[in-house]
Amino acid sequence: MPASPDTPGGTSGRVFAIQSLNPYQSRWTIRARVSQKATIRTWNKNGREGKLFSFTLLDSSGEIRATAFNAEVDKFYDMIEVNKVYYISKATLKPANKQFNTTNNDYEMTLNSDTQIVPCDDGEEVSVPSTSFNFVPIGKLDSYQAGDFVDIVAIVHETGDLSTVVTKAAQRELQKRDLGLVDDSGCLVRLTLWGNEAATFDGSNHPVVVVKSAKVSDFNGASCANSRQHWRFV
């Protein structure tokens, strides 16, 4: 498929499908929609500090997770918007870390100083599919294993107070808030929000929320959904 000459990688004359990417390729450009975007997180390890954020990209062939660190956070965080389409090239590809990666892709990308990201405004964005969901009823969460990822749509029945915990690894404070969600199955599940999402959430009007790729855990025999990913009001 021809690439626009004023997009990253335009001289290569081809836009690659996400599922065709692998670490052995050096020149490629994808045209993809942002389906999820996480908030900025900070880390402190062995006396070193930094920050990162991740987002998920999709096209008609599949999804891939991208992560930016430090200088690339400053460069790209405000540019990246959920549901917008971009041309992306010159990121580093590596095997996916399945502990944090919710996509089905064997690889993931890391943005670097050479990475180019340009909004797609040439009319080709209409060819890129929108975010898809595979909703799981809350009443069926007990059939999933801890560590599985699920999509949920539910009403906020309870909103817990904002609290602060200290992470074991980095020994830093992190804000959290627990929500009680219910759906047509008549069951309730706890959803934990973290960071800025926890601090800014307002559940006073019992809104309907959509959660993409919530991580299932098990707490005292009850299935729980733990979200560091993307959620939105309906």
- Give the helix/strand class: mainly beta
Which second-level CATH architecture of the largest domain applies?
Beta Barrel
Main sheet properties: 8 strands, mixed
Q: Examine the coordinates and then state which fold CATH places here, giving the name of the CATH topology of the largest domain.
A: OB fold (Dihydrolipoamide Acetyltransferase, E2P)
Beta content comes to 35-45%
Secondary structure blueprint with pairings:
Elements: E1 29-37, E2 41-45, E3 48-59, E4 62-69, H1 71-76, E5 85-89, E6 92-95, E7 107-110, E8 116-119, E9 149-159, E10 163-166, E11 173-182, E12 188-194, H2 195-200, E13 208-219, E14 222-226, E15 231-233
Parallel strand pairs: 4-7, 12-14
Antiparallel strand pairs: 1-3, 1-5, 2-3, 3-4, 5-8, 6-7, 9-11, 9-13, 10-11, 11-12, 13-14, 13-15
Question: Can you walk me through this structure?
Answer:
With 234 residues, this protein is mainly beta. It folds into two domains: 15-119, OB fold (Dihydrolipoamide Acetyltransferase, E2P); 138-225, OB fold (Dihydrolipoamide Acetyltransferase, E2P). Helices cover 5% and strands 44% of the residues. The protein is built from two helices and 15 strands. The chain has helices at 71-76, 195-200; strands at residues 29-37, 41-45, 48-59, 62-69, 85-89, 92-95, 107-110, 116-119, 149-159, 163-166, 173-182, 188-194, 208-219, 222-226, 231-233. The strands form two sheets. Strands 1, 2, 3, 4, 5, 6, 7 and 8 form an eight-stranded mixed sheet that branches. A five-stranded mixed barrel has the order 9-11-12-14-13. The two termini are 35 Å apart. InterPro entries: NA-bd_OB-fold, NA-bd_OB_tRNA, REPA_OB_2.
